[in-house]
TrEMBL record:
Pfam families: SBP_bac_8 (PF13416). The lineage of its organism: Bacteria, Pseudomonadati, Pseudomonadota, Gammaproteobacteria, Oceanospirillales. Its main location: periplasm. Spermidine binds at Y83. Coiled coil: none annotated. This is Putrescine-binding periplasmic protein. Required for the activity of the bacterial periplasmic transport system of putrescine. It comes from Kushneria sinocarnis. One of its GO terms (molecular function) is polyamine binding.
Length: 353
């Protein structure tokens, strides 16, 4: 048997060390598309001498499936919506942030210990906003500010409309609100009643399907649909940058109530670079950085000390909901166990019939 030479062993060790060092100089993000300013990424790379690699998902359900399939070993920072933070914790897919994440003192008190992560152990808020209805103000100038716009077949018997693509719990929550039970309903009988209404809605001839929030805004602007569901920040951004066609697109939060959401930053349990991830989250909490993020996304910030730095359009409705609107907003309940299984199975049955 021939043994490798000492010179060869040293060369191999140097190559392995170089590869490890190169890998350690990368930070892997798993985020929503168009949700991070390129300039912020560039400045972080320059300051910490790293390369940031971004991958994207279109829904929380897609993100969760990816992490369960081994993605918790591929990504360093992920950006789930509030109630999915609880699902990730229940699935044992997250690690505690620990004390090395700094800057929480910049947050508004209401975001430091949220209901979905009561001790703030696993998550830090990134952006927040609400979900409402977008519509064509020219074809539907007198549309009631109600979920009737989507779910009442007599009010809208002909104009094409779409529902929001993604997790079924949201859609059932909007119907619960329309039926008088509140967006944050959690009674199984109420879910069943909402599921029946969802099925009836999907059977209407003018139902065009499920689309994401940005697509709904675009489709209203182009006349493909006349009513849809979107997020307030996307609406604000499209109105500001989309051109003349977007001037006819209106937005409101239904009077029966809707979703208040918070997108958060978390570290997967087996993240390849957890310490670099903590540095990144701490960097995101700097007020000047948080303001740059909001000025790019069109959403408001949970960072109290960043608020004065926001563009004026982001310090007023609809980007920043007023107090009257905020009283109508609810977070999506964080379900677990049999309740989560029940509502997922219920939604699967709704979509498959």
């Amino acid at each position: 048997m021939q043994f490798p030479s000492v010179r060869w062993l040293l060369a191999a060790a140097l190559l392995a060390g170089s590869a490890m060092a190169q890998a350690a100089d990368r930070l892997y993000l798993f985020n929503w598309a168009d949700y991070m300013p390129p300039g912020v990424i560039h400045d972080f790379e320059q300051q910490y001498d790293v390369n940031v690699v971004q991958s994207y998902y279109n829904s929380n359900a897609e993100m969760l499936a990816k992490l369960r399939a081994g993605g918790d070993r591929q990504y360093d920072v992920v950006f789930p919506t509030d109630y999915f933070v609880a699902r990730l914790v229940q699935a044992d897919l997250l690690q505690p942030l620990g004390k090395k994440v700094t800057g929480r003192d910049h947050l508004f008190p209401e975001f430091r210990a949220p209901s979905y992560d009561p001790e703030g152990r696993y998550s830090v808020p990134y952006q927040w906003g609400d979900t409402g209805i977008v519509y064509n103000t020219e074809t539907l100038p007198n549309l009631p500010h109600s979920w009737d716009a989507l779910y009442d077949p007599e009010l809208n018997a002909e104009q094409p409309f779409a529902l929001l693509k993604g997790d079924g719990q949201f859609t059932l929550g909007t119907i619960c609100a329309w039926q008088g039970h509140g967006f944050d309903c959690h009674d199984r009988k109420q879910w069943v009643a909402a599921a029946k209404a969802a099925r009836s809605t999907m059977n209407r001839p003018n139902f065009s399907g499920f689309v994401n929030g940005l697509a709904a805004i675009d489709q209203v602007a182009r006349g493909v649909i006349q009513v849809g569901i979107a997020y307030n920040g996307d609406y604000v951004n499209k109105r500001a940058t989309g051109g003349e066609a977007y001037r006819k697109v209106g937005f409101f939060v239904p009077e029966e109530g809707s979703q208040r959401w918070v997108d958060s930053m978390v570290i997967p349990k087996h993240a390849p670079h957890p310490e670099l991830a903590r540095q990144f989250i701490s960097y995101m909490l700097r007020p000047e950085v948080a303001a740059r993020i909001s000025n790019f996304t069109g959403y408001t910030t949970p960072n109290r000390d960043a608020l004065p730095r926001l563009e004026p359009r982001l310090r007023q409705p609809p980007a920043l909901p007023d107090e009257k609107t905020r009283q109508r907003l609810s977070v999506t309940p964080a379900l677990s166990g049999e309740d989560l299984q029940f509502i997922q199975q219920l939604w699967t049955e709704v979509r498959s019939r």
